[in-house]
Amino acid sequence: MRSLAQNTIFEIQPYVPGRPIEEVKRELGLKSVIKLASNENPYGPCPKALKAICRAAQQVNRYPDGDCYDLRQALAQRLKVSSRQLIFGNGSDEVIVLATRAFVQKGDEVIIAQPSFLIYAIAAKLAAAKIKTVPLKNFYYDLEGMKRCLTAKTKMVFLGNPDNPSGQYLTQDDVQGFMRAVSPRTLVFIDEAYYEYVQAPDYVNSVGLLKKHKNIIVTRTFSKMYGLAGLRIGYGIAHEETIDCLNRVREPFNVNSLAQAAALACLNDPLYYQDLAREIARQRKILYAGIERLGLKYVASCTNFVLIDMGRPAGLVVRALLAKGVIVRDMSPWGLGRFIRVTIGTPLENKRFLNSLKGIL
Ligand SMILES: *Cc1c(COP(=O)(O)O)cnc(C)c1O
Protein backbone atom coordinates (compact mmCIF):
# COMPACT_ATOMS: atom_id res chain seq x y z
CA MET A 1 0.00 0.00 0.00
CA ARG A 2 2.90 2.36 0.71
CA SER A 3 3.83 2.35 -2.98
CA LEU A 4 0.31 3.48 -3.86
CA ALA A 5 0.47 6.56 -1.61
CA GLN A 6 1.29 10.03 -2.82
CA ASN A 7 5.05 10.07 -2.21
CA THR A 8 5.20 13.39 -0.38
CA ILE A 9 3.30 11.94 2.60
CA PHE A 10 6.37 9.99 3.72
CA GLU A 11 8.14 13.24 4.47
CA ILE A 12 5.45 13.91 7.07
CA GLN A 13 5.90 12.81 10.67
CA PRO A 14 2.46 12.02 12.07
CA TYR A 15 1.46 14.63 14.67
CA VAL A 16 1.80 13.30 18.22
CA PRO A 17 -0.82 14.92 20.45
CA GLY A 18 -0.73 15.26 24.24
CA ARG A 19 -1.82 11.95 25.82
CA PRO A 20 -5.50 11.72 26.75
CA ILE A 21 -6.26 11.39 30.48
CA GLU A 22 -8.20 8.13 30.08
CA GLU A 23 -5.37 6.50 28.10
CA VAL A 24 -2.82 7.31 30.82
CA LYS A 25 -5.17 6.03 33.55
CA ARG A 26 -5.66 2.79 31.63
CA GLU A 27 -2.00 2.21 30.86
CA LEU A 28 -0.49 3.11 34.22
CA GLY A 29 -3.38 1.93 36.39
CA LEU A 30 -3.75 5.40 37.94
CA LYS A 31 -6.96 6.67 39.52
CA SER A 32 -6.28 10.37 39.24
CA VAL A 33 -4.55 11.94 36.28
CA ILE A 34 -4.26 15.61 35.32
CA LYS A 35 -3.44 16.88 31.85
CA LEU A 36 -1.32 19.99 31.43
CA ALA A 37 -0.14 19.06 27.96
CA SER A 38 -2.41 20.57 25.30
CA ASN A 39 -3.02 24.15 26.44
CA GLU A 40 -6.68 23.54 27.07
CA ASN A 41 -8.85 25.67 29.33
CA PRO A 42 -9.09 23.62 32.56
CA TYR A 43 -12.43 25.10 33.63
CA GLY A 44 -14.43 24.42 30.49
CA PRO A 45 -16.60 26.80 28.51
CA CYS A 46 -19.09 29.30 30.00
CA PRO A 47 -22.33 27.73 31.34
CA LYS A 48 -24.29 29.39 28.53
CA ALA A 49 -22.27 27.37 26.02
CA LEU A 50 -23.13 24.11 27.80
CA LYS A 51 -26.81 25.04 27.64
CA ALA A 52 -26.49 25.88 23.96
CA ILE A 53 -24.88 22.49 23.30
CA CYS A 54 -27.79 20.67 25.00
CA ARG A 55 -30.28 22.68 22.99
CA ALA A 56 -28.46 22.03 19.72
CA ALA A 57 -28.16 18.33 20.56
CA GLN A 58 -31.89 17.94 20.00
CA GLN A 59 -31.33 18.55 16.30
CA VAL A 60 -28.28 16.45 15.56
CA ASN A 61 -30.32 14.43 13.07
CA ARG A 62 -30.04 17.47 10.77
CA TYR A 63 -26.93 18.52 8.90
CA PRO A 64 -25.30 21.62 10.34
CA ASP A 65 -25.60 25.00 8.66
CA GLY A 66 -22.72 24.78 6.19
CA ASP A 67 -22.46 28.57 6.19
CA CYS A 68 -22.42 29.00 10.03
CA TYR A 69 -24.85 31.89 9.48
CA ASP A 70 -25.63 32.96 13.07
CA LEU A 71 -22.07 32.66 14.27
CA ARG A 72 -20.78 34.39 11.14
CA GLN A 73 -23.03 37.41 11.64
CA ALA A 74 -22.15 37.73 15.33
CA LEU A 75 -18.42 37.40 14.73
CA ALA A 76 -18.39 39.78 11.76
CA GLN A 77 -20.07 42.39 13.93
CA ARG A 78 -17.66 41.79 16.79
CA LEU A 79 -14.59 42.05 14.55
CA LYS A 80 -15.99 44.86 12.38
CA VAL A 81 -15.32 42.94 9.18
CA SER A 82 -17.66 41.84 6.40
CA SER A 83 -19.28 38.44 6.96
CA ARG A 84 -17.62 37.33 3.69
CA GLN A 85 -14.22 37.89 5.25
CA LEU A 86 -14.68 34.91 7.57
CA ILE A 87 -14.24 31.18 7.18
CA PHE A 88 -14.94 28.59 9.88
CA GLY A 89 -13.00 25.38 10.28
CA ASN A 90 -13.04 22.11 12.17
CA GLY A 91 -10.53 23.71 14.51
CA SER A 92 -8.23 26.45 13.22
CA ASP A 93 -5.94 23.57 12.23
CA GLU A 94 -8.32 22.95 9.36
CA VAL A 95 -7.97 26.55 8.17
CA ILE A 96 -4.18 26.06 8.05
CA VAL A 97 -4.65 23.01 5.83
CA LEU A 98 -7.26 24.77 3.66
CA ALA A 99 -4.83 27.65 3.11
CA THR A 100 -1.95 25.46 1.97
CA ARG A 101 -4.32 23.35 -0.14
CA ALA A 102 -5.76 26.40 -1.88
CA PHE A 103 -2.58 28.42 -2.34
CA VAL A 104 0.57 26.30 -2.11
CA GLN A 105 1.66 24.26 -5.13
CA LYS A 106 4.50 21.82 -5.68
CA GLY A 107 7.80 23.67 -5.54
CA ASP A 108 6.45 26.80 -3.85
CA GLU A 109 8.44 27.96 -0.86
CA VAL A 110 6.98 28.25 2.62
CA ILE A 111 8.83 29.95 5.48
CA ILE A 112 8.37 28.62 9.01
CA ALA A 113 10.13 29.44 12.30
CA GLN A 114 11.92 26.67 14.15
CA PRO A 115 10.67 25.53 16.62
CA SER A 116 7.07 26.45 15.89
CA PHE A 117 3.64 24.86 15.70
CA LEU A 118 4.08 21.49 13.94
CA ILE A 119 0.92 21.68 11.81
CA TYR A 120 2.46 24.42 9.62
CA ALA A 121 5.13 22.04 8.32
CA ILE A 122 2.70 19.12 8.02
CA ALA A 123 0.29 21.20 5.93
CA ALA A 124 3.09 22.63 3.78
CA LYS A 125 4.58 19.19 3.11
CA LEU A 126 1.18 17.84 2.15
CA ALA A 127 1.10 20.56 -0.51
CA ALA A 128 4.60 19.47 -1.67
CA ALA A 129 6.11 22.83 -0.74
CA LYS A 130 9.77 23.52 -0.20
CA ILE A 131 10.07 24.50 3.46
CA LYS A 132 12.61 27.04 4.67
CA THR A 133 13.01 27.05 8.43
CA VAL A 134 14.36 30.01 10.35
CA PRO A 135 15.61 29.31 13.90
CA LEU A 136 14.20 31.41 16.72
CA LYS A 137 16.62 33.80 18.38
CA ASN A 138 16.34 33.53 22.14
CA PHE A 139 12.79 32.17 21.62
CA TYR A 140 11.82 35.19 19.53
CA TYR A 141 11.05 35.26 15.81
CA ASP A 142 14.10 36.22 13.72
CA LEU A 143 12.11 38.41 11.35
CA GLU A 144 15.26 39.71 9.64
CA GLY A 145 16.31 36.12 9.00
CA MET A 146 12.84 35.38 7.64
CA LYS A 147 13.03 38.41 5.35
CA ARG A 148 16.31 37.11 3.93
CA CYS A 149 14.52 33.86 3.00
CA LEU A 150 11.86 35.65 0.93
CA THR A 151 12.14 34.94 -2.82
CA ALA A 152 9.85 35.20 -5.84
CA LYS A 153 8.82 31.62 -5.05
CA THR A 154 7.73 32.29 -1.47
CA LYS A 155 4.01 31.53 -1.35
CA MET A 156 3.41 31.60 2.38
CA VAL A 157 5.03 32.65 5.65
CA PHE A 158 3.69 31.35 8.96
CA LEU A 159 3.74 33.65 11.95
CA GLY A 160 2.48 32.01 15.14
CA ASN A 161 1.48 34.97 17.26
CA PRO A 162 1.84 34.20 20.09
CA ASP A 163 3.65 31.09 18.95
CA ASN A 164 3.59 27.65 20.45
CA PRO A 165 5.81 26.41 22.06
CA SER A 166 7.73 29.70 22.61
CA GLY A 167 4.86 31.68 24.18
CA GLN A 168 6.24 34.92 22.64
CA TYR A 169 4.27 37.51 20.67
CA LEU A 170 5.02 39.86 17.79
CA THR A 171 4.27 43.56 18.16
CA GLN A 172 2.52 45.96 15.80
CA ASP A 173 5.92 47.33 14.73
CA ASP A 174 7.30 43.82 14.17
CA VAL A 175 4.50 42.75 11.86
CA GLN A 176 4.17 46.11 10.09
CA GLY A 177 7.90 46.12 9.38
CA PHE A 178 7.74 42.56 8.13
CA MET A 179 4.78 43.27 5.82
CA ARG A 180 6.76 46.06 4.17
CA ALA A 181 9.34 43.48 3.04
CA VAL A 182 6.80 40.95 1.78
CA SER A 183 5.60 40.86 -1.83
CA PRO A 184 1.81 41.05 -2.36
CA ARG A 185 2.23 37.64 -4.01
CA THR A 186 3.25 36.07 -0.70
CA LEU A 187 0.60 35.21 1.88
CA VAL A 188 1.38 35.91 5.51
CA PHE A 189 -0.49 33.47 7.71
CA ILE A 190 -0.85 34.85 11.24
CA ASP A 191 -1.97 32.17 13.69
CA GLU A 192 -3.54 33.79 16.74
CA ALA A 193 -4.70 30.67 18.60
CA TYR A 194 -3.79 32.38 21.91
CA TYR A 195 -5.05 35.84 20.97
CA GLU A 196 -7.46 36.03 23.90
CA TYR A 197 -4.64 35.58 26.43
CA VAL A 198 -2.44 38.43 25.25
CA GLN A 199 -2.66 41.56 27.37
CA ALA A 200 0.35 43.45 25.99
CA PRO A 201 -0.65 46.88 24.62
CA ASP A 202 1.85 46.63 21.73
CA TYR A 203 0.41 43.31 20.45
CA VAL A 204 -0.33 43.56 16.73
CA ASN A 205 -3.80 44.45 15.49
CA SER A 206 -3.67 42.01 12.61
CA VAL A 207 -7.27 42.49 11.53
CA GLY A 208 -6.53 46.21 11.23
CA LEU A 209 -3.51 45.44 9.01
CA LEU A 210 -5.78 43.49 6.65
CA LYS A 211 -7.18 46.80 5.37
CA LYS A 212 -3.81 47.73 3.96
CA HIS A 213 -2.39 44.28 3.24
CA LYS A 214 -4.73 41.96 1.38
CA ASN A 215 -2.20 39.13 1.60
CA ILE A 216 -2.81 38.37 5.30
CA ILE A 217 -4.76 35.42 6.70
CA VAL A 218 -5.46 35.53 10.44
CA THR A 219 -6.74 32.51 12.36
CA ARG A 220 -8.17 32.20 15.86
CA THR A 221 -9.80 29.36 17.71
CA PHE A 222 -12.47 28.40 20.23
CA SER A 223 -10.22 25.55 21.46
CA LYS A 224 -8.00 27.43 23.85
CA MET A 225 -9.45 30.27 25.94
CA TYR A 226 -13.06 29.45 25.01
CA GLY A 227 -12.74 25.87 26.21
CA LEU A 228 -14.27 24.10 23.20
CA ALA A 229 -11.26 22.00 22.11
CA GLY A 230 -13.37 18.83 22.01
CA LEU A 231 -15.93 20.33 19.64
CA ARG A 232 -13.37 21.48 17.06
CA ILE A 233 -14.07 25.01 15.85
CA GLY A 234 -11.81 27.83 14.75
CA TYR A 235 -11.94 30.55 12.12
CA GLY A 236 -9.99 32.57 9.63
CA ILE A 237 -10.21 36.29 8.81
CA ALA A 238 -8.94 37.45 5.41
CA HIS A 239 -9.75 39.42 2.29
CA GLU A 240 -13.01 38.31 0.62
CA GLU A 241 -11.12 36.94 -2.39
CA THR A 242 -8.87 34.88 -0.13
CA ILE A 243 -11.89 33.48 1.71
CA ASP A 244 -13.51 32.61 -1.62
CA CYS A 245 -10.42 30.53 -2.54
CA LEU A 246 -10.48 28.78 0.84
CA ASN A 247 -14.18 27.99 0.49
CA ARG A 248 -13.51 26.14 -2.75
CA VAL A 249 -11.42 23.52 -0.96
CA ARG A 250 -13.58 23.34 2.18
CA GLU A 251 -15.91 20.41 2.79
CA PRO A 252 -19.53 21.61 2.87
CA PHE A 253 -20.33 20.59 6.47
CA ASN A 254 -16.92 20.98 8.06
CA VAL A 255 -18.16 22.60 11.28
CA ASN A 256 -20.66 20.62 13.35
CA SER A 257 -23.86 22.08 14.77
CA LEU A 258 -22.93 21.71 18.46
CA ALA A 259 -19.71 23.61 17.86
CA GLN A 260 -21.52 26.44 16.06
CA ALA A 261 -24.08 26.83 18.85
CA ALA A 262 -21.46 26.69 21.60
CA ALA A 263 -19.13 29.17 19.89
CA LEU A 264 -21.95 31.68 19.50
CA ALA A 265 -22.80 31.37 23.19
CA CYS A 266 -19.13 31.93 24.10
CA LEU A 267 -19.01 35.14 22.07
CA ASN A 268 -22.04 36.33 24.00
CA ASP A 269 -20.39 35.87 27.39
CA PRO A 270 -17.29 38.10 27.33
CA LEU A 271 -17.35 38.67 31.10
CA TYR A 272 -16.86 34.96 31.85
CA TYR A 273 -13.77 34.98 29.67
CA GLN A 274 -12.39 38.23 31.03
CA ASP A 275 -12.46 36.68 34.49
CA LEU A 276 -10.86 33.53 33.14
CA ALA A 277 -8.04 35.48 31.47
CA ARG A 278 -7.33 37.28 34.76
CA GLU A 279 -7.33 33.99 36.69
CA ILE A 280 -4.93 32.33 34.24
CA ALA A 281 -2.59 35.34 34.43
CA ARG A 282 -2.68 35.11 38.24
CA GLN A 283 -1.96 31.38 38.18
CA ARG A 284 0.85 31.90 35.70
CA LYS A 285 2.61 34.16 38.21
CA ILE A 286 2.16 31.60 40.97
CA LEU A 287 3.56 28.91 38.70
CA TYR A 288 6.59 31.07 37.84
CA ALA A 289 7.30 31.55 41.55
CA GLY A 290 7.03 27.80 42.16
CA ILE A 291 9.40 27.05 39.29
CA GLU A 292 11.91 29.57 40.64
CA ARG A 293 11.71 28.00 44.10
CA LEU A 294 12.76 24.70 42.50
CA GLY A 295 15.81 26.46 41.07
CA LEU A 296 14.63 26.06 37.49
CA LYS A 297 14.44 28.56 34.62
CA TYR A 298 11.40 29.23 32.47
CA VAL A 299 10.56 31.25 29.38
CA ALA A 300 8.07 33.95 30.44
CA SER A 301 4.95 33.57 28.31
CA CYS A 302 1.94 35.69 27.36
CA THR A 303 -0.20 32.56 26.93
CA ASN A 304 -1.65 29.77 29.07
CA PHE A 305 1.49 27.62 28.79
CA VAL A 306 5.10 27.90 29.90
CA LEU A 307 8.36 26.35 28.72
CA ILE A 308 10.53 25.14 31.59
CA ASP A 309 14.22 24.33 31.26
CA MET A 310 14.79 21.16 33.27
CA GLY A 311 18.58 21.28 32.89
CA ARG A 312 18.47 17.56 32.02
CA PRO A 313 16.84 15.40 29.31
CA ALA A 314 13.16 16.35 29.31
CA GLY A 315 12.02 12.83 28.41
CA LEU A 316 13.11 11.52 31.82
CA VAL A 317 11.18 14.21 33.66
CA VAL A 318 8.08 13.75 31.51
CA ARG A 319 8.00 10.00 32.17
CA ALA A 320 8.52 10.48 35.90
CA LEU A 321 5.69 13.04 36.03
CA LEU A 322 3.47 10.70 34.02
CA ALA A 323 4.06 7.95 36.61
CA LYS A 324 2.65 10.43 39.16
CA GLY A 325 -0.37 11.10 36.98
CA VAL A 326 0.75 14.47 35.59
CA ILE A 327 0.77 14.78 31.79
CA VAL A 328 3.06 17.52 30.40
CA ARG A 329 4.74 17.86 27.03
CA ASP A 330 8.28 16.73 26.22
CA MET A 331 9.74 19.38 23.90
CA SER A 332 12.47 17.10 22.45
CA PRO A 333 10.60 16.65 19.13
CA TRP A 334 10.76 20.46 18.77
CA GLY A 335 14.53 20.36 19.22
CA LEU A 336 14.30 21.62 22.82
CA GLY A 337 15.69 18.51 24.48
CA ARG A 338 15.88 19.95 28.01
CA PHE A 339 12.47 21.64 28.00
CA ILE A 340 8.99 20.65 29.03
CA ARG A 341 5.86 22.65 28.19
CA VAL A 342 3.26 22.98 30.90
CA THR A 343 -0.27 24.35 30.54
CA ILE A 344 -1.54 26.63 33.31
CA GLY A 345 -4.19 24.59 35.10
CA THR A 346 -6.48 25.15 38.07
CA PRO A 347 -4.78 26.14 41.34
CA LEU A 348 -4.97 22.52 42.52
CA GLU A 349 -3.52 21.15 39.31
CA ASN A 350 -0.66 23.63 39.36
CA LYS A 351 0.13 22.73 42.96
CA ARG A 352 0.09 19.05 42.14
CA PHE A 353 2.41 19.64 39.20
CA LEU A 354 4.90 21.61 41.32
CA ASN A 355 4.80 19.06 44.16
CA SER A 356 5.30 16.17 41.76
CA LEU A 357 8.18 17.99 40.11
CA LYS A 358 9.77 18.67 43.49
CA GLY A 359 9.53 14.96 44.32
CA ILE A 360 11.34 14.07 41.12
CA LEU A 361 14.19 16.58 41.24
C1 LIG B 1 -3.85 24.84 19.61
C2 LIG B 1 -3.27 25.59 18.48
C3 LIG B 1 -3.96 25.79 17.28
C4 LIG B 1 -5.28 25.30 16.90
O1 LIG B 1 -6.03 24.47 17.45
P1 LIG B 1 -7.47 24.11 16.91
O2 LIG B 1 -7.98 23.30 18.04
O3 LIG B 1 -7.28 23.31 15.65
O4 LIG B 1 -8.20 25.37 16.67
C5 LIG B 1 -3.37 26.54 16.29
N1 LIG B 1 -2.18 27.08 16.45
C6 LIG B 1 -1.48 26.92 17.57
C7 LIG B 1 -0.16 27.58 17.67
C8 LIG B 1 -1.98 26.16 18.62
O5 LIG B 1 -1.26 25.99 19.72
* DSSP, total strands: 13
The overall pLDDT, averaged over residues, is 96
The assigned CATH architecture of the largest domain is 3-Layer(aba) Sandwich
Spans of 5+ residues with little confidence (pLDDT < 50)? none
How would you characterize the largest beta sheet?
A: 7 strands, mixed
Q: What is Rg? A: 20 Å
What fraction strand?
15-25%
Order of helices and strands: HEHHEHEHEHEHEHEEHHHEEHEEEH
Ligands (ions, cofactors included): pyridoxal-5'-phosphate
Fourth CATH level, the homologous superfamily of the largest domain: Type I PLP-dependent aspartate aminotransferase-like (Major domain)
Provide the spatial order of strands within the biggest beta sheet.
2-8-7-6-5-3-4
Helix-residue proportion: 25-40%
Q: What is the top-level CATH class of the largest domain? A: Alpha Beta
N- to C-terminal distance: 47 Å
Task: Explain what this protein looks like in three dimensions.
The protein has 361 residues and is of the alpha/beta class. It folds into two domains: 2-44 and 271-360, Alpha-Beta Complex (Aspartate Aminotransferase, domain 1); 47-267, Aspartate Aminotransferase, domain 2, CATH 3.40.640.10. Helices cover 39% and strands 16% of the residues. Strands 2-8-7-6-5-3-4 form a seven-stranded mixed sheet, sandwiched between helices. A four-stranded antiparallel sheet has the order 9-10-13-12, covered by helices on one side. A two-stranded parallel ribbon has the order 1-11. Helix 4 packs across helix 9 and helix 11 (270-293) runs parallel beside helix 13 (347-360). The chain starts with 20 loop residues before the first helix and ends with a helix. The relative contact order is 0.16. The model has no long low-confidence stretch (mean pLDDT 96). Pyridoxal-5'-phosphate is lined by residues 39, 91-93, 117, 160, 164, 191, 193, 221, 223-224, 229, 234. Residues 39, 91-93, 117, 160, 164, 191, 193, 221, 223-224, 229, 234 line the site of pyridoxal-5'-phosphate.
